[in-house]
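F.,

This is the one I mentioned.
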């Protein structure tokens, strides 16, 4: 079997850490420099698809639906959101690392069907937390796939997103009857309770990393 070859690196702003983009035939992997294992892999994106599917099915019939994807990653959540929404929708994708956007416009883009080229997509470079604070009542759905979930952070500043303050900001950024969807690599009962304490109704869904029904079990919270 062919080996992965590094085809790009990108610095995480304010952290001094680099992401690595690797390719093996038509498979891509994003890894954190110096850390073992994949952060993301194009073979395993079933739960990223499900994050968008579960959130968007609740608001897809709204005219002019506007949604936020927190974290571009490999583009699969963005692509699934675009597939679920109408032609008059807008999908804002917030990505902290400029290099990740460049990869999705270049060699990585084909894996998810080049969703950045869709005219309904708007890229917001920077911290998704700042975007939440700056757009009260701005979104019908918010999908957060940042790091590995509430307890799997690779960037300390992201802890705010999962704090009561961050969850309250997300709640205020939702339009009436909007939905907040949060992806995680595993269960987190404390986070479920945190969502409830800020006044959100919570549903937890277990999804698989690889469809259909294969791979690790990941968790998605749907809060409204």
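My design for it:
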């Amino acid at each position: 079997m062919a080996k992965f070859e590094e085809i790009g690196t990108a610095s995480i702003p304010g952290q001094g850490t680099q992401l690595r983009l690797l390719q093996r035939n038509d498979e891509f992997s994003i890894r954190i420099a110096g850390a073992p294992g994949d952060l993301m892999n194009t073979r395993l994106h079933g739960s990223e698809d499900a994050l968008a599917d579960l959130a968007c099915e609740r608001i897809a019939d709204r005219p002019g639906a506007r949604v936020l994807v927190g974290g571009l990653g490999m583009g699969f959540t963005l692509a699934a959101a675009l597939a679920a929404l109408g032609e008059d929708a807008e999908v804002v994708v917030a990505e902290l690392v400029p290099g990740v956007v460049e990869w999705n416009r270049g060699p990585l883009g084909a894996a998810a069907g080049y969703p950045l080229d869709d005219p309904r997509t708007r890229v917001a470079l920077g911290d998704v937390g700042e975007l939440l604070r700056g757009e009260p009542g701005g979104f019908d759905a918010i999908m957060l796939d940042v790091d590995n979930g509430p307890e799997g952070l690779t960037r300390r500043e992201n802890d705010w997103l999962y704090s009561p303050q961050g969850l309250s900001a997300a709640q205020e950024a939702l339009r009436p009857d909007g939905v907040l969807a949060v992806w995680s690599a595993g269960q987190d009962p404390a986070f479920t309770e945190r969502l409830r304490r800020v006044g959100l109704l919570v549903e937890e869904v277990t999804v698989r990393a690889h469809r259909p029904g294969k791979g690790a079990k990941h968790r998605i919270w749907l809060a409204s």
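Residues 46-56 form the longest helix (11 residues).

Talk soon.
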